[in-house]
Write a structure and sequence with these properties.
The structure holds 2 protein chains of 2 kinds. Chain A is an alpha/beta fold. Chain A contains 8 helices and 7 strands; from the N terminus they run H-E-H-E-E-H-E-H-E-H-H-E-H-H-E. In chain A, helix 4 links the parallel strand 4 and strand 5. In chain B, strands 1, 2, 11, 12, 13, 14, 20 and 21 form an 8-stranded mixed sheet that branches. An 8-stranded mixed sheet of chain B has the order 4-19-15-18-17-16-8-9, with helices on both faces. At the A-B interface, strand 2, helix 3, helix 4 and strand 7 of A face helix 1, helix 3, helix 11, strand 7 and helix 19 of B. Chain B: Substrate-binding subunit of the Rab geranylgeranyltransferase (GGTase) complex. Binds unprenylated Rab proteins.
Chain lengths: 242, 614
């Protein structure tokens, strides 16, 4: 990933494209967002949620509480003529005692495995999560290894960039170092993932069992959308509120 | 993608070849279960290092069956602190869902009788299709030579496997020596899976336990069976096999709860396609709408009118008490007879609408009970699909439990699976009323304790909990053709004596459509709520329908159900209802527990749409 002149600019430009994506979608009726399930993994306190909050809301909270309160976050991202809607799943702390449910990985098209560049043990943990994903998740899953807390590079780096990069290359992962605190490289992680996801394949397989995320109503492969049915809670067409 | 795919492949191969075997002294089934639950080999060490800083909770919940999971998530949602533990390393308890290997191992191999979960399973019998030479060659991946065109159907009579699972000499004509190539393919498979050989042996009830791979003769009559099993096992991970398959009523309280809580967003469902009823040896499609009733050719017009009149009344039966009050506490079947319904229509209402399939039930349920069951079914029609039911993808109870547990975690609930419990003690101190001690030494206290009946053995000595045991007999059959032509997701009800079965049986067919199995197969789950049911009841049905499953696994689930929910003021027991075809009782149990612990709130009350985080 080439370094950008300014991380803040990169963040801003991506946010712009994400904002304008909504407008484009309305202009081009056939341009429906492609839903992509993305799961977060990594040791506790490496900044998984902070990275996502930076990506989704472009904000950072110092001393954030351990994750509670959000089932998943969503963010749109525009790539060429396509709009990707990330549905980002946080572990909700269930990884801590190795009690993540199989459901968590199910049909995930992308995973961001996070470690803390100041803590070498967190990279080992990240590697074990990568192994789990490669064994248990969808075989075509796009995995990005992200070393967080790049802002602490000067004072506390514990994992040499080259070491993590070499591992990522060998294991076939996207790799970058980022800082949720400053925003450095955070947006890039998600755009690089978007570039690597086989979107056309995803569109084609939509609605098949074991395929992509669910569609609405009973249309997509006969799936029933509980909320879209009569008496459902938010029965608006398309089911997309954002 | 290339390297990752190769890596994945290598890893799978390593696993298959048992390369990890030396790592730990966990028994093999446990290790596989652990693998499935994504628990890494050094799991135990890490738990010990990572003790929870918080040790007191408003509620500790034991077991991740559906009732417990709904309770845990509703409490967390209402702001209570929750610790949710399970001694197993998978979610779902008796509703768990496994790949084929794990399924077979849980039921057949290295049973840990000290774990009440395992102790609940018995009466295991495995029957494999006998298989022909063609099938052996096909499954071994060998192209048939052009000149072996003489057709030998790849079937064998199921009846040949009766009354005992043979393992004996094939009766399906002489098995000719397969080509050296196919033999070596099978032997290679077995060599790579040396750890499976004992499983194969026990599965096949081999009369000669001294047989080893090396001694396997190409003309071994068991070879076709090995081949079929070996072939299925190579696809193991494409199977999601429920221990206790379930359906959801379209307008039942569970579906409503999934919608109102938002938990349904984690789940995927399909509509059940059709319901069949076995009547005088034939399976008939059960009409799912008024139009279906009237377009049905085989029912007389008089009967159609009587049926419609009855169904119209039953939807809102409470409004017309004068019609049924004389029969209110008398058997439903007497009331139906009094309505001048024909025996066929009575069977239709009793078995395929009220789902009172057990012989005793169908004769004893009262009119009020029967009408309530009928009403529940009718109200669920016309919402999605052509039947009253939804089918969950990837397994019902297991997925639902996982979804509620995730929701609980999102609201701060803490999860520890694979947590063997050594003792539970009870004290007078209201702040630490219950103390749960794990066998790793971890101690947690709580003000409330909610537990599945699997943990009754951990209670203090002298504490009497009155338990009733319920046994359900089951069979899981993997088919290569559907039970009825062109069906995927379907239920067939076999009332007592309707076919060659003496006991009532419900058969749920799942398919690739709900990711239950690879595309070329179907999974037929048969179960009988009757305590008198035997394997023979299932075998008779499979045989009469000319189904020749590749493999059939018979087993029983025996679950303890407490006769009272609250065994102490703050201690609730919930049982796993493995008998019913639906989950409604789990929701009722969960609501009752929630209302006692959080009396002023509605379960999942105040949930708003913004929880998307959008």
């Amino acid at each position: 990933m080439a370094a950008r002149p300014s991380a803040r600019d990169a963040a801003a430009s991506l946010n712009n494209s994400a904002t304008s994506a909504g407008g484009d979608a309305q202009n081009a009726a056939n341009l429906k967002p492609i839903q992509v399930k993305l799961v977060l993994l990594g040791e506790a306190a490496v900044g998984k949620s902070s990275l996502v909050l930076r990506f989704v809301n472009n904000e950072f909270q110092e001393n954030k509480e351990p994750t509670i309160g959000a089932a998943f976050l969503t963010q749109k991202c525009k790539l060429d003529d396509k709009i990707i809607k990330y549905e980002i799943w946080d572990t909700a702390g269930q990884e801590r005692f190795h009690s993540l449910a199989p459901m968590y990985y199910r049909n995930a098209q992308a995973a961001v495995v996070v470690y803390d560049i100041t803590k070498p043990a967190s990279l080992d943990k990240a590697k074990s999560w990568v192994k789990e994903l490669q064994r248990q998740a969808n075989p075509n899953i796009v995995i990005a290894l992200v070393g967080n807390k790049l802002d602490l590079e000067a004072t506390a780096r514990g994992v040499p960039r080259e070491e993590a990069q070499a591992y990522a290359t060998e294991a076939g992962l996207l790799f970058s170092e980022a800082s949720a605190k400053t925003g450095d490289n955070v947006m890039d992680v998600f755009t690089e993932i978007a570039k690597k996801i086989p979107l056309d394949q995803l569109l084609a397989s939509r609605g098949r069992a074991g395929g992509a995320a669910s569609g609405s109503g009973a249309a997509a492969g006969g799936r029933v959308d509980l909320n879209a049915g009569p008496g459902g809670r938010n029965a608006q067409p398309g089911g997309c509120a954002c | 993608m290339g390297p990752s795919a190769i890596f994945n492949h290598l890893h799978t191969m390593m696993w298959l070849s048992g390369a990890n075997d030396q790592r730990e002294r966990l028994s093999r089934p446990l290790r596989d279960l652990r693998d499935r639950a994504f628990i890494r080999p050094n799991f135990k060490g890490e738990t010990n290092l990572q003790m929870l800083e918080q040790t007191h909770f408003d509620a500790i919940v034991l077991g991740t069956g559906l009732s417990e999971s709904i309770i845990a998530s509703s409490l967390a949602r209402a702001g209570k602190t929750v610790l949710h533990l399970d001694r197993n390393i998978f979610y779902g308890d008796h509703f768990a869902c496994f790949d084929l290997k794990t399924f077979l191992r849980v039921l057949c191999v290295e049973r840990d009788e000290t774990n009440p979960f395992n102790a609940a399973y018995g009466d295991v019998e495995v029957v494999l299709r006998s298989g022909s030479k063609e099938e052996v060659e096909r499954l071994a991946g060998i192209q048939k030579r052009e000149n072996t065109a003489n057709e030998e159907p790849a079937t064998s009579e199921v009846a040949q496997d009766l009354p005992t699972d043979d393992g004996a000499v094939e009766t399906n004509g002489p098995i000719q020596t397969p080509t050296p190539n196919s033999i070596s393919t099978i032997l290679d498979f077995l060599k790579q899976n040396a750890n499976l050989v004992p499983v194969f042996k026990s599965l096949l009830a081999d009369p000669d336990p001294s047989v080893t791979i090396a001694s396997l003769d190409p003309s071994d009559p068991l070879l076709p069976k090995y081949t079929i099993l070996a072939h299925l096992l190579t696809q193991s991970r494409q199977f999601n096999i429920d221990l206790a398959p379930k359906l959801l009523y379209n307008r039942g309280p569970l579906v409503e709860l999934l919608i109102s809580s938002g938990v349904g967003k984690y789940l995927e469902f399909k509509a059940l396609e059709s319901v069949y009823l076995s009547w005088q040896g034939k399976c008939e499609l059960v009409p799912g709408s008024k139009e279906d009733v009237f377009s049905n050719q085989s029912v007389s017009l008089v009967d159609k009118r009587r049926l419609m009149k009855f169904l119209t009344f039953a939807v809102e039966y409470e409004a017309q008490p004068e019609i049924y009050q004389d029969f209110a506490t008398r058997p439903f079947i007497d009331f139906l007879r009094d309505q001048k319904l024909s025996p066929r229509l009575i069977s239709f209402i009793l078995h395929a609408i009220a789902f009172a399939v057990d012989r005793a039930d169908s004769e004893t349920i009262t009119t009020v009970q029967g009408l309530a069951l009928t009403q529940r079914h009718l109200q669920s029609l016309g919402r999605w699909g052509k039947t009253a039911f939804l089918v969950a993808l990837y397994g019902a109870g297991s997925e639902l439990s996982q979804a509620f547990c995730r929701f609980c975690a999102v609201y701060g609930g803490i999860y520890i699976l694979n947590f063997p419990i050594s003792t539970i003690s009870i004290s007078e101190d209201p702040d630490r009323r219950f103390k749960v001690v794990g066998s790793d030494g971890g101690e947690y206290t709580s003000s409330w304790l909610v537990t599945s009946s699997n943990y009754v053995g951990n209670l203090p000595q002298g504490m009497n909990v009155d338990m009733k045991s319920t046994r359900v007999l089951r069979a899981m059959a993997i088919l290569d053709k559907p039970i009825h032509e062109d069906t995927n997701l379907t239920v067939t009800v076999f009332p007592p004596d309707s076919n060659s079965n003496t006991q009532g049986i419900i058969a749920i067919q799942q398919s690739w459509d709900v990711s239950a199995c690879p595309k070329e197969y179907y999974i037929l789950h048969l179960h009988s709520p009757s305590p008198q049911a035997t394997h023979q009841d299932f075998k008779a049905i499979l045989s009469s329908l000319s189904l020749d499953p590749l493999i059939t696994v018979f087993y029983s689930q025996t679950v303890q159900v407490p006769s009272t929910m609250w065994v102490a003021d703050h201690l609730a027991f919930v049982g796993s209802n493995v008998v019913d075809v639906d989950f409604e009782s789990a929701v009722l149990d969960a609501k009752a527990v929630f209302e006692r612990i959080v009396p002023d709130e509605e379960i999942f009350g105040g949930v708003v749409a913004e929880e998307d985080g959008e």
